[in-house]
Amino acid sequence: MACAAWLSGCVSTGAGRSSHLSTEALLEKAQGWQAVAIRGQSERIQADAWLQCATLAHDAMGTDKAATETAAGLLATQCSRAFFDLVAQGGPIGVAKGQSLLGGVAIRVEFRGMPDSLGSSVYLEPADQVSMDPLGGVRHHRAGFGVPLVAFALPCSDRPICRHYPPEGVFRPTTMWLEGPSGTDAHKDPPVLVLQNPELQPEHVTGANHYALAEDVSAPFAQLLERTRLKRLAWWGMIGGAEVGKRAGLFLLDDYDPHKTPIIMIHGVAGSPLIWSRLSNAIMGDPELHRRYQIWHIVYQSNAPLLVERYRVQHYIDEAWRVLDPDGHAPARQGVVLIGHSMGGVIARLLCAQSTPEVWSAAFLQPMDSLHANANDLATLKNVFQFQPYPGVDEIIFMAAPQRGSPAADGLLGRLVGLLAWRHIEEMAGLMRIVAANPKAIQPAIRAMIQTGHITSITSLQPDEPVSLADEKLMPAAGVRYDTIAGVLPGVKPPGDGYVPLSSALLPGSTTTLVVRSDHKVPDRPGAIADVLKILHEHGASHAMASNAMP
User: Fold this and answer.
1) Does 245 reside within a domain?
2) Least confident of 45-49, 109-113, 411-415, 516-520
3) Same domain, yes or no, for 182 and 299?
4) Is residue 225 part of a domain?
5) β-bridge partners, 488
6) Are 385 and 363 contacting, i.e. CB atoms less than 8 angstroms apart?
7) In the prediction, which pLDDT does 170 show?
8) Are 425 and 405 in the same domain?
9) Beta bridge partners of 206
10) Backbone φ and ψ of 152, nearest 5°
């Protein structure tokens, strides 16, 4: 009979109905509703009972007695999770801010500090049901109050920043719990399903008690990786497939924060941001680093010559800054870290270097001003061959980067890519027009490569390619620290990771150098990941000291 009476609507009176009871009595009543839920004969009865259990236990969390505080927090979490599992029926559920109906029960959904990127409606899934296989089985999570969930939303399309969210969707950590309504009309209002951002608001306060929220930072990233098509598209991008080109750009793993230092990760030939999965997870799973840094992934079509790829990546970074910080004053613009794998490491070095006349002379016999060409082609040519160190960068981490080329580029793969890729390099069309109009202005070897189309990202990595020989001498500007991590496999001749020789990967002047036992996938190796985390901690500490020293 008590259950039947309660189903008529008692639960909606939550906090107001129970305000006269002691916290111990509230906890006892919550435990009683837990028993009702366990033996409930229908899903509706169970849903209502779990809801009553969760809201009463939440009311009891304001106690001044430590034993009750702990027990109430645990029970509120357990009953909130049981309610969610019941209404979700093993799959994700969709909710929107405001009034909703879940499991036949009226609920008010409240977003607290949730990221703007999610909008006003999301799909929810328990974080512990998300496989960690894409992250090598490593899950970074924290126990505490509430139920860790993954909140998923399709990317927006109504603002410029939407272009910098992954096209697969936006995935963010959230913590959920149920509580009773508050205010003068609490007896009339439905209970509240709270979704709180555990990164922005890591605590829940009730009474005088502070409860640290449970959080899972790995599950949202793993969900994104499960949905991405980048692994297949990366190879097509190397030989000119258009899909990678369509989605090329700079993408945010977190919502933009003007006070967090960006770590910009640049993949290599036939690569994608998937190479950064384990490293990105490790950075986000380190609370100190995640408070200080935000991770940005570059996606680019890796078919073009090296200097063209450098120009592309700079364009993507410039484009992102125009959207994220149009005034150019954000603290995030200073102390930027670049991490580059394979050819991405060479691009990172060139992004921080000053071009020289020798680079131009390696390709051309005449000054740029004397060339006959249309304005757009000349502008592209100037951007490719004349550049300055990218402002704000003061740290580069090279990972398996062929700074002096790779013998593998001369092999069968290099020749195959040279045959397939060149017709799909947009920037090369302009260079070919310039060559046709100025045949005597181009170095013979370069002219022959351009005319036949055999000049690509792979040919740029050939140890004897003329322009690459010149740009090998371009080093990061003064004030830019750089660290090198390289791989080596037993029995490989010359010593290296099978693709990049150590003689090419080890760069003089590096602040630190680490050689790990690894194939070319150096960013996947635990030793390499640990070294990057150490470098970032040192980088962050030095910036903190510099900031504190400022008047």
Assistant:
1) no
2) 411-415
3) no
4) no
5) 517
6) yes
7) 96
8) yes
9) 209
10) -125, 140
What strands, in cross-sheet order, belong to the sheet with 192-196?
93-96, 121-126, 147-153, 170-179, 192-196, 105-112, 98-102
131 pLDDT more than 90: yes
**In terms of domains, do 393 and 280 share one?**
yes
Whether 81 and 61 share a structural domain: yes
Q: Please, what's the b/e burial string for 229-259 (b: 16 or more CB within 10 A of its CB; e: otherwise)?
A: ebeebbebbbbbbeebbebbbbbbbbbbbee
Residue 239 resides in a domain: no
Q: Which tokens belong to 60?
A: 């009891």
- CA–CA gap between residue 441 and residue 457 (Å, rounded): 23
Same structural domain, 441 and 539 = yes
Same domain, 68 and 103: no
Band (485; pLDDT cuts 50, 70, 90): very high
The mean pLDDT of 489-516, rounded to a whole number, is: 95
The pair of structure tokens assigned to 231 is 């692994």
**Cα dihedral 22, 28, 33, 35 in deg (nearest 10):** 180
Q: Are residues 80 and 142 in the same domain?
A: no
Distances (CA, A) of 2 to 10, 19, 121: 10, 20, 36
pLDDT digits (tens, 9 = 90+) for 36-81: 999 988 899 999 999 999 999 999 999 889 889 999 999 999 999 9
Residue that the structure tokens 């603290």 belong to:
331
Average pLDDT, the chain: 87
How many other CB atoms are there within 10 angstroms of residue 464's CB atom?
9
Q: Which domain holds residue 201?
A: 93-219
**Given a cut of 70, is residue 530 above it in pLDDT?**
yes
Among 71, 88, 105, identify where a domain stops. Answer: 88
Same domain assignment for residues 518 and 485: yes
**Sign, CA torsion 14/17/18/19:** positive
Please write the tens of the pLDDT for every residue from 325-370.
999 999 999 999 999 999 999 999 999 999 999 999 988 899 999 9
Query: Residue 486: which CATH number?
Result: 3.40.50.1820
Which residues make beta-bridge pairs with 100?
107
What is the arithmetic mean of pLDDT over 431-438? 85
Question: How many whole angstroms separate alpha carbon 473 and alpha carbon 476?
Answer: 10
- Give per-residue pLDDT as tens, 260-307: 999 999 999 878 899 999 999 999 999 999 999 999 999 988 777 889
DSSP letter assigned to residue 442 = B
Structurally, the chain folds into a number of domains equal to 3
Q: Give the pairing type, strands 393-399 and 481-488.
A: parallel
> Quick one: which of 441, 471, 472, 435 has its CA closest to 453?
435
Query: Could you give the CA distance from residue 84 to residue 76 in angstroms, rounded to a whole number?
Result: 12
